[in-house]
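User: Study the fold:
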Amino acid sequence: MRNPAPTLLKPWQRSLVALLLTVVLFITGCQAKAPDRFAQAQQDSTQRGVTAVAKDATQGSQFNKFFPKPGAGYERVYTQEKKGFSEASLKKDGKELAKLSISDTSSLPAAAAKYENSTETIAGYPAMTMGNTQTGVLVGKYQVKVLSRDPDFSQAQREQWISKFDLKGLARLDS
C-alpha cells in the first residue's frame, strides 16, 4: 500500500493562508469605488417619470434614406438603428473613418438647445463643433452628427459629409 502524497502546508499554515485571504477580500470589498463615467447618466435615467426615448420620437429606420450614399471608394455600413436614432460607419479600404448619425432630439431637448446660440451653419442649418472629433447640425428636431474615428479625418471632412446628408428631406420629415 502506498502512502498518500505529503501535504505541502501544515494545518496552521493553511489556516493562516485562509485568514489572510479573508482579510484581503474584506479590505478590497469595503473600499469605496470611484464613480464611473456613466454614473450620472444612470442616475438621471432612473428617476421617476424619466423615459429613455420620447413616445413621439421618429423610428430610426426612417432616417436611413437621408444618409449620404456610398461611392467613390467609400462604404456606408449601418451599425445601429433604434427608435429616435440611426448610425452608420463610414469606411474606405476597410478602415473606419467616421461615424455618421441622425438622432431625434425630442428625447434629449438639451441636445437641441446647444445649437440656439450657434454662429456657425452648414447648408443653412445651425452647426457646431464638439471637441476635436465631432461636428453636428440641427435640422428641425433632428441632430445630424459626424464623429471622426480616424485621427486624419478632419473637421472640414466632417462638414463635407454632413452636407452630403439629405438635410432638406430630413427637414420635411420633421414637419
